[in-house]
Each structure stands twice: as C-alpha cells, then as structure tokens.
Amino acid sequence: TKNEVLLVGSLIAYYKSPDNSVIKITLATKTGEITNYPHVVFYGNKVVNAIENFILSQEGKTKPKVAVRGVLQTKKKVSDGKASFYQDLIGKEINEASTVLEQSAGQLKGIQKIADKNEVFITGEMVSSYPIPNQKSCYVLTVKTVDGIPNFPKIACFGKTGVIASDFAVGDNVCIVGFIQTQRKVINEEK
Questions:
Q1: For residue 117, which phi and psi values (nearest 5 degrees)?
Q2: What is the reported pLDDT for 111?
Q3: Which of 90, 113, 136, 158 could bridge across to 65 with cysteines, CB 3.0–4.6 Å?
C-alpha cells in the first residue's frame, strides 16, 4: 500500500505548542489559478526543534518555498459517547525547495525555485464508499493503507473520477492520485 503526500509551496505560517511536542505549518500551494492552504503537523520534541530551526534559518526570505513529504493519518475522537473521525496531514520531512537547475541539471546555484506541487498518492484496499448527498457523481472512498500502522484516509472523488469510484466494491484494491483541497472562506468585511 502507499500513502504519500508531496507538497511544494510557500511557508506562510507556523505554530509550535508550548511543550515543544507539536509544530503545525501552513503552506500556500498554487496549481493553475487555484491556491490551497494545507496544514502539516509534525510531532516529537527533536523533530519540532529541528523544524523550528529550519524555519528560523529561512527568516528574512519572503514566504520561503519549502518541500514537504508526509502521509494522511486518520484519528478517532470520542466525545459524549459519540465517535468522530478526522484526518491530519502528518509531516515526515521538510526541506528548502530545490531550484529548477538542481532538478534538471544537478546545478546547486540556481535561483528559480521549482513549481508548486500538491500531490497525493493512495493505494490500498477500499473499505467503504458512499455518495455525497445532493451531488451528482461525487463519492467518498475510505481506503486502508498500512505503513507501519494502518490508516484509513477518506478521499472525495468528483466528476468523471466520481463515476469511476462509484463502480468500486469493498475489498477492491484501488490507486488514487489527487491533491489536498482546502476550504476557502469568503470574509465579508463590514465596518
């Protein structure tokens, strides 16, 4: 199975927990005309300190471009006897984004950073699916992936992909390539 997320984008914000056990970063990734703002969570004091040092080394650079590799991780939360599930994007690695010259010719002195990336690769066993109510050709699939521990990321499929997803059956092995889409909020600024 595979559960991999690759992001390249501008680092626009970060938050570190008071106990140094968690750091959460926000990237801006632009694909075509659409910008998404995925949040990535890193755990562990050593990891958090290393990432904060990396972020601080980028200070002075306007929205430094970084490359992040991670996984989608699902968690169960029980409140008032009711279970709910949510998923986080867990970071495994963060680096300064490479340049076009590094990628194409192995040259280290390039200036132009590589293009933004927002890619998700999921392969595994489909354990459930359901249509999104009042939406034509929209399905949500839950896929079991195992990379040390089992995860059950939910993937929304729209349009032609939704039509194909509607034909999958529980137990089928599936391969899904997509991207992280974040909710966009319109704020009405009234005085």
A1: -135, 145
A2: 65
A3: 113
